[in-house]
Design goal:
This protein is of the alpha/beta class. 17% of the residues lie in helices and 35% in strands. It contains 6 helices and 15 strands. The chain has a 7-stranded mixed beta sheet with strand order 10-9-8-7-11-12-15, with helices on both faces. The protein has a 6-stranded antiparallel barrel with strand order 1-2-5-4-3-6. The longest helix has 13 residues. The radius of gyration is 18 Å and the shape is globular. The two termini are 28 Å apart.
Length: 258
């Protein structure tokens, strides 16, 4: 899928929770091409920072030519993004990577949509586009964000580490507590969560797709900075790995080896 490098105008930016921000960008070409599970690379305005920051696509409004990202401030680059105001322009490239296979969530099936932490945002556009019955399980360390925006698209179940809201524990604790069953899993979140979901899917013979979180540099598969272990041999490097930015970030669970 063709990627675009362009200057985009910030349509709106809001703070959702402590250190978590939502940014809508005016980028008609990327919004038109993007599919759930892909990401963009956003460049800072600091010339000393050469590499962009990869951020998952949260929502797309093709009619208005808008794209939404939701990100957590983790370093100087994302801290800079959090200070941007409406009307400013930013350089970005996208859409990048491979998204979730929408056919796997066709009408008549029952799907798990599982997001953990900053892996929650890319599940929102997926929830909007899937036509099947959706069980949406969201896991948080503490502060909630985006959970209310999922409610129009399926049954939402929450898990928090301290038990302040929903199930005390992780997303699989919530699945078990509520006795949830499904035909396919779509998930995004930290590696320990994805590893556990892969094992759960295997044990229960459930089709499963995982969106991996890795540190990325180039975002287009050239630098090999974001490889993960794989069951098959990568044609680019001829070893058992996959490039998360190029071959992923979405993989069928059997493809990756944690």
């Amino acid at each position: 899928m063709a990627k675009v490098m362009e200057s985009a105008r910030i349509f709106r930016q809001t703070r959702l929770a402590d250190g978590v921000y939502s940014m809508w960008l005016e980028t008609k070409d990327i919004a038109e091409k993007a599919v759930p599970g892909q990401f963009i690379s956003l460049y800072t305005k600091d010339s000393a920072k050469l590499l962009p920051r990869p951020i998952s696509i949260c929502e797309v409004d093709r009619e208005k030519g808008l794209l939404r990202i939701v990100y957590r401030v983790l370093g100087s680059g994302t801290e800079e993004f959090s200070r941007y105001k409406e009307g400013e322009t930013v350089e970005l490239m996208g859409p990048l990577g491979n998204g979730f296979p929408l056919k796997a969530g066709a009408a008549g099936r029952k799907a798990f949509l599982i997001g953990g932490g900053i892996g929650i945002p890319p599940m929102l556009e997926l929830a909007k586009q899937l036509s099947c019955e959706k069980q949406i399980i969201l896991g948080y360390r503490d502060s909630l964000f985006l959970n209310e925006e999922f409610q129009p698209y399926g049954n939402v179940f929450l898990a928090t580490e301290d038990g302040s809201v929903g199930t005390k524990g992780n997303v699989l604790d919530a699945v078990r507590e509520h006795g949830l069953k499904g035909d396919v899993i779509f998930a995004c979140g930290p590696t320990p969560m994805l590893k556990a979901i892969k094992a759960y899917a295997s044990e229960n013979q459930i089709e499963c797709y995982l969106s991996l979180e890795e540190r990325m540099a180039c975002g287009i598969g050239a630098c090999l900075a974001c490889v993960c272990k794989s069951s098959g041999i990568d044609e680019h490097s001829m070893v058992h790995n996959k490039r998360v930015c190029k071959d992923g970030p979405v993989f069928q669970a059997e493809e990756v080896d944690f």
